[in-house]
Design a protein that fits this description.
By secondary structure, this protein is α+β, with helices and mostly antiparallel strands. It contains 2 helices and 4 strands, in the order ββββαα. It has helices at 68-76, 82-95, and strands at 7-10, 20-28, 32-40, 57-65. Helix 1 packs antiparallel against helix 2.
């Protein structure tokens, strides 16, 4: 279950089936970060992070790691989500200052 989503991004352009690639991050400070990466339904495209629910994802992978560095390292090898992860990294680093 997605708790309080701290950060959320999606691609601007839908995929041919009307879904969007997206990543939602839940920061469970000080213990871990949970990432949801997958495709969200078109009707959920304009939702903000706090409004994203598990049912908004059509297909998803879930990872739980100990810190931000592990999140970025994981997505370095996930070509479908690398650009979204780079965008999120910029947001996280900006908001963490």
């Amino acid at each position: 279950m997605i708790g309080h989503v701290s950060f959320h991004v999606r691609e601007r352009t839908p995929l041919p089936d009307g879904t969007y690639r997206a990543i939602s991050l839940e920061h469970r400070a000080p213990h871990s970060v949970m990432a949801w990466a997958g495709r969200i339904r078109g009707e959920a495209a304009d939702k903000t992070g706090i409004d994203i629910k598990p049912g908004d994802y059509v297909c998803r992978q879930i990872i739980s790691v100990c810190g931000w560095r592990a999140v970025w390292e994981y997505f370095e090898h996930e070509s479908d989500f690398r650009n979204l992860a780079d965008t999120l990294r910029g947001i996280v680093e900006r908001d963490s200052r």
